[in-house]
Amino acid sequence: MLPTSPDRLPYSATNPRPNGTRALAQVMGANGVAVTQVTTLAAATAAPAGSTLVVVLTDDLNDSATAALMQVPADLVVVYPGVAESFTVADLAAHRVMTADRWASSDAAGCSDPDAQAAGSITDDSSWALESPSSRVTTCFVNDDRTALYADLTTDTHRVTILTGRTWLQNGTITEQGNAALALRVFGRHPQLTWYLPGEDVKDAGDTDEQGFDLFDLLPPWSRPVFAVLLVAGAAAALWRGRRFGALVKEPMPVEVPASEASSGLAGLYRQAGARGHAAAALRAAAIMRVSARLGLSASASPQTVVERIAQASGTDPGALNALLYGSPPATDQELADLAHTLTDLERKLSSR
């Protein structure tokens, strides 16, 4: 929710990502051109005569911003991505150049401009391009439908050059075809270059319905950072006061209950609930565990193996043993008591042998 850093903006001269133009700025700096990136209209219009002002025109500008840029004494280079129709292009070119749909691509410069001829060809990836009915405008990279990617003219105030294309200036495509040659020649005409990324304050308000509006535009300018601080504070409070889930911690029992009392309490619960099946299963499991240990059987021995070994050791009928150890649960308290006595007798018989 904080304002986007210029280092992440498309066409930013400090953005090292594929959609930035840092590679071009660094090469120009190495060739003696001082590149300064600005994001405010006041800083852009301060560009002096004998320098170059680059305007990255991703959206149309409002009338006051356009009028201010038309009066800048520095030479003007307009970077027009060509993704939609632009009226600002025509205003900055003194209405000698307009935008139009581009249906076909061009293979060569096809003009007398030395910068375009040095490039030969550039990446043609725009859906909108330039057209001009004026003979005082030089257009290059023109296709069969007479739309161009490059236009150069001179107004009463300064020289205006318009370059069209979505990606050819960016880090990911600057080395393709003649992109770098054209960029270095056009942007390097003067030793000082001001790279202007227009902010939302100069965008045309007529695009609001199409692009939507930011809720923070209805609040004071300081509301965005304050909301961010409150969000961070809320997250910190949640981490501070929230429940922490970690490994279980063994705690000492406040009271130690003897095993006999625990058994009596469990038996009372079984009796109160009428859970004869659970009680019988507990008696049978305990008896099988003690008898198996005495006969050398493993805990994973099958019921058939347990019955056969006990039958051999006790001389008891295997069918009776199977009913005793793995039979159905008792239906009455008396049957449960009889089961307990029979299991005890079985253990005594095995102990005597």
Secondary structure blueprint with pairings:
Layout: H1 22-30, E1 34-38, H2 41-45, E2 52-56, H3 63-70, E3 75-80, H4 87-92, E4 98-101, H5 114-119, E5 128-131, E6 138-140, E7 150-154, E8 159-164, H6 179-187, E9 192-196, H7 208-211, H8 223-241, H9 259-273, H10 276-295, H11 303-314, H12 318-326, H13 333-352
Parallel strand pairs: 1-9, 2-3, 2-9, 3-8
Antiparallel strand pairs: 4-5, 6-7, 7-8
Helix pairs in contact: 10-11, 10-13, 11-12
Description:
Mean pLDDT is 88; it is low at 207-212. The strands form two sheets. Strands 1-9-2-3-8-7-6 form a seven-stranded mixed sheet. It is built from 13 helices and nine strands. It has two domains: 6-204, Rossmann fold (3-Layer(aba) Sandwich); 270-352, no CATH class. α10 crosses α11 and α11 (303-314) crosses α12 (318-326). 40% of the residues lie in helices and 12% in strands. The longest helix has 20 residues, at 276-295.
